[in-house]
Amino acid sequence: MCPPRFFAVDYAINPWMDPTQPASAEVAMEQWTVLRDTYRRLGHTVEEIDPEPGLPDMVFAANSGTVVAGRVLGSRFRAPQRTAEAEYFRRWFVEHGYRDITMPEKINEAEGDFAWTGTLLLAGTGFRTDPAAHAEAQEVLGVPVISLHLVDARYYHLDTALFVLSEATDTRRAQIAYYPDAFSPGSRRVLERLFPDAVLADAADAECFGLNGVSDGRNVVLPVEATGLAARLEKQGYAPVFVDISELRKAGGGPKCCTMEIRKG
Ligand code: ARG
């Protein structure tokens, strides 16, 4: 995670960002701190990277790396405003002992568009990540990649429209939640085939960034407004944990965007 010390909405690269509206680094920092402490309270290890001045979106650490079984695939941003972030994260991995690090050739916004189910890497395209980056990820990480097409600009990254509730080494047992309307008809059919028991989100769940949740298989960290989705998850045995991310949402981000999940083993 990266503390949002230099958070701002200075440019607009997604429909949520409005540089004419006020955004506060102080409030973002308070909300981020609660999110970080929530993970710690739930028993997870959180490591931090230093933020850099002039990179207001660096708080969205999920966009800077995909790590599966200790292998790191770095990122390459579409927007010039974010390009420099990738190198800071690459250095962080080097300094923290990671040796299998590949920087992509194709535009690749990492966990913004990649979600690991335990056997498959679900991969979004349409707004940010280049479809050719899906094949590149498959080759670098050595895991099967399923390409999914996003069609609604508000849900420009896969992690704004879908998240993994529980990983499993048997594809049929992994569980996901997603908002069908954010996907093309073909991609919806792929998701129905692979995940017939998925939790389906509605427009209200998606609009508050409810699909930008982070689950450890039991606890599901969600924006405080995602009450409808939370109720459905509770019925399935999950424990929703609410956080306020209203300031971060002004940049088009939520809990998951702030969180890169490092899978060492
Ligand atoms: N302002 C950032 C952008 O548009 C937000 C990124 C949110 N991150 C995410 N994983 N969806 O790139």
TrEMBL record:
Q: What is its EC number?
A: 3.5.3.18
The entry lists its GO molecular-function terms as:
dimethylargininase activity
Supply the SUPFAM superfamilies for this chain: Pentein
Q: Which domain of life is it from?
A: Bacteria
Which top class of enzyme applies to this chain?
hydrolase
Q: Which UniProt keywords apply?
A: Hydrolase
- Name of the protein in its database record: Dimethylargininase
Instruction: Please state the gene responsible for encoding this protein.
Output: ddaH
